[in-house]
Amino acid sequence: MAYFDPEPKRRKEDFFDMEAEVEEFKRGLEVSKFVAVLGLRRYGKTSLILTTLNELGLDYVFVDCRLLPSGMISVSDLIAILERELSEKSWFRSIASSIEGIEVGPIGVRFRRRDLNTLVSVLERLEGKVLVLDEVQELRRSRYRFDSVLAYLYDHVDVKIVVSGSQVGMVHRFLRLEDPSAPLYGRPIYFVRLRPLDRERAREFLLKGFAQEGVDPPRDVVERALDVLDGVIGWLTYFGYAYTRLGVRDLDRIVDMASRLALEELEHALRIYGVGRPRYAAVLKIVAELGEATWSEIMRFLESRLGRVPRNTLSNILRNLVDMGVLMKTSSGYRVADPILRYAVKKYLRIG
Question: Which CATH number fits domain 12-193: 3.40.50.300, 3.40.50.620, 3.30.413.10, 3.30.230.10?
Fold first, then answer.
């Protein structure tokens, strides 16, 4: 697998040199039972986790919470994902028959009972393993508090817990680490935070990736891509993939293609707000148009488009968008955190 392959990387030789981040994650696994890897979408969190766990030779269960259905989720929804993952683990298939409520057939592992007790019984058998919950903030969409299960595992089972999240504020809300009444309160958690590549590392990533593909693009194209993509390794990968594998040599067209993907993800995230979506869209629109907008500028635009809005409503909208990782708070206002999403909001997002 080359640098420009779009799938998450699983081997060190396929993973661009992020040695400092890898070592930080390894240290977290050494000193803590619970590690949280945080960073915006396409910062390389999944690749970092999978590559490091494979390099260390650790057995793990990887649960991609993005596969959960939209709307409210249930224990059964989580079990459906867990079944598919456990079916691929030979070490689990060998012990599955000894777990009440579990059967192993030719097509894999199946939970006969899809309830909380069965889920906990299975997770208890992960002694000495690593449980990974990718995009863990999606679990907040449940009437059941899954952080209670994580606290139980932390206290009673010899298992490492790794969670990742791109909606950083939402992860903190899900874990509720500062709430004395919350299940995980007081448990030490090791945080690993990913950030965009600086320009020199981003340039190195592109040049090495193009060399792997046997392509030598004009240097001005590379430099312009660095200007536009702002060190986000996922978008750098997409650019390289489109340029070399899809044969799209026009950077503007690649940016447009990527922006449609980003917009689709944004629309999915905004569905949770239902009839409140137009207000969220209007806030994003003015911030993207101005590049950076103050609270007052946002309020004026919002009320000019949608009528009077209570001050606390706007404050809640901004807090939610920051927690989602869509907006970033700066010293003078707010801006759209992701460069491609900023383009998508300006060009394609509809308020109504």
Answer: 3.40.50.300
Domain-by-domain residue ranges, the chain?
12-193, 199-249, 268-347
CATH fold, domain 268-347, is Arc Repressor Mutant, subunit A (1.10.10)
pTM over 0.70: yes
Question: Within 13 Å of residue 12, how many CA atoms lie on the same side as its CB?
Answer: 10
Most distant CA pair in the chain, distance: 64
- Mode of pairing for the β-strands spanning 130-134 and 60-64: parallel
Bridge partners (DSSP) listed for residue 134: 64
Q: Kindly report, residue by residue over 264-318, the tens digit of the pLDDT.
A: 999 988 988 989 999 999 999 999 999 999 999 999 999 999 999 999 999 999 9
C-alpha 79/C-alpha 109 separation (Å) is 11
CB 43 within 8 A of CB 178: no
